[in-house]
Amino acid sequence: MKDEIINRVANSKLVTLDLEDYYPKGNRVLFDIKDWLYEGFVLREKDFRNQVSEFDWSQFQDQFVALTCSSDAIIPGWAYMLLSIHLEPYATKTLVGTLDNLETAIYQDIINDLDVSAFSDKPIIIKGCSNKPVPQNAYIMLANKLKPLAKSIMYGEACSSVPLYKKK
Questions:
Q1: What's the pTM?
Q2: Where are the domains of the chain?
Q3: 1, 42, 66, 155: least buried by Cβ within 10 Å?
Q4: DSSP notation for 93-134
Q5: Which 3-state string (H, E, C) describes 39-92?
Q6: The pLDDT of residue 7 is above 70
Q7: How far is it, in rounded angstroms, from Cα 59 to Cα 74?
């Protein structure tokens, strides 16, 4: 059959890397301490410590937690550290910041631990469309990690990729 359709993408050496494949399961939770402050603005150490010790932290089992204070209160660093110590036996990851900061930190850990040796001297497409909340920073971190090894880096899909880097 001389009119046979050949899938050149499937037969190519292109490697597609989809960050969505690495998305870890677990709820992302924003824990706001504003309600634990006197009038929403003042951290009273004794009251705060009592609330921390009486709180059921087990509800954060296997969850990712971003600690924040939505009021304009000045929160001492030890307060967030105290919360993280109580979350440590339960939460998968804890940080101070927004849910976007949390998602970026989750992916930073994933990309730091990612073995990219198999991508050496290969043309790579970093898949761009995602149904899960992959942060933009994750794409940047991945591209920077792949650049020293890859033959080329593209973004998008095999049928419509945007070239980003080509080894000289």
A1: 0.85
A2: 8-24+103-166, 28-91
A3: 1
A4: EEEES-HHHHHHHHHHHHHHH---GGGTT-EEEEE---SS--
A5: CCCECCHHHHHHHHHHCCHHHHCCCEEEEECCCCCCCCHHHHHHHHHHHCCCCC
A6: no
A7: 27
